[in-house]
Amino acid sequence: MSSLRYSTPALNVLNRFYRVEFVVFVEGLDDKIFWEVFFKKADVGECFVKQLGGIDEMEKIMKRILDEDAQVIVACDCGHTPYLSNYPRHERIVTTFGHSIENTMYCFRTINRTISKLSRNTKDMSQTIQEWIAKFSETAKPMIIYDIANVVFEKSIQVFGENCCRFLTRGGSHDLSPQKIDIFLKSIRPHFEEKEVQECERMVEEDERDLRYLIKGHFLTHAVLNYIKNSVRRERQIKLNLPIESLFALTVDGCENCACDCFESAEVTNRIRVAASSLNPLC
After folding, report:
1. In terms of domains, do 117 and 249 share one?
2. What is d(CA 282, CA 275) in angstroms, rounded to the nearest whole number?
């Protein structure tokens, strides 16, 4: 059923149709799988997570929540909304801790477990993975700043793109090339005023989250994929065939399988609990 057919009164009783306590709207299938893990982890009652298939449909549901107090929850990527002072906020619009679901999926603990499974090796590589993520993120920092400026000042310039392949040191590498990034940023710099870049640089410095949370999620995927393949090759001396679909399957439920109660997981589950507690049980 299209969201266009949902009146606010219909949204308010949609949980009865699905025979659950409440309904959660997400954008796509990947988001559905990811958010089901977190709503289960939050232990807020039985819910139905419904994918809408596009951001436009999501925004219509958000508007119903904001304007008409619709009794449903929306779960979505945070993007760069923390830097937008005029972006609408509501306790029943739950966002990821980082830019996208991938920023959570590619936690160093999840990457470590994935390498361990594929390499048939129980060796703990967490420290090395953390160091790689920190180096990758620091190299990407200038792009993060320009990507935020692109959103804040509405430049309509593609900064990160859909993947990082063109910025890797070579094919199959998991490291970014500072030289390639510098050449690219010089090509888009004329579209930005220096004060705009400086303002967004200040925003990044003041953000308490690690840099890895500020990178566009899809940009991370091929680097993580290559890191895992290169690590398995080093451990088992084999060339691993690991499609992106398999990477998703191996990482999407990482938080569900993690015994560590990290700040990120605690923050997202708390947002979910606040959202669930704000629902009117009489609707």
Report:
1. yes
2. 16
Using DSSP bridges, classify how beta strands 47-51 and 22-26 pair: parallel, antiparallel or unpaired: parallel
The pLDDT-based confidence of 282 (bands split at 50, 70, 90) is low
- Its domain, for residue 14, covers 3-100+267-277
User: What is Dmax (Cα atoms) for the chain?
Assistant: 61
- What is the Cα–Cα distance from 48 to 35, expressed in whole angstroms? 11
H/E run at residue 22:
strand 22-26
Q: Which of 41-50, 98-107, 231-240 has the lowest average pLDDT?
A: 231-240
Radius of gyration of the chain (CA): 20
**What does 213-272 look like in DSSP terms, one character per residue?**
GGS-HHHHHHHHHHHHHHHHHHHHS------HHHHHHHHTTTTTT-----HHHHHHHHHH
User: What are the start-end ranges of the E strands in 27-100?
Assistant: 47-51, 73-76, 93-95
Question: What does the pLDDT average to over 243-253?
Answer: 95
Note the pLDDT of residue 87. Answer: 87
C-beta of residue 145 within 8 angstroms of C-beta of residue 185: no
Distance separating alpha carbons of residues 201 and 23, to the nearest angstrom: 38
Same domain? 115 vs 162: yes
Q: What is the dihedral of CA 235, 239, 244, 248, to 10 degrees?
A: -30
Angle at Cα 183 formed by Cα 181 and Cα 185, nearest 5°? Answer: 65
In a domain, 47, yes or no: yes
Q: Model confidence over 60-83: pLDDT tens digits?
A: 999 999 999 999 999 999 999 999
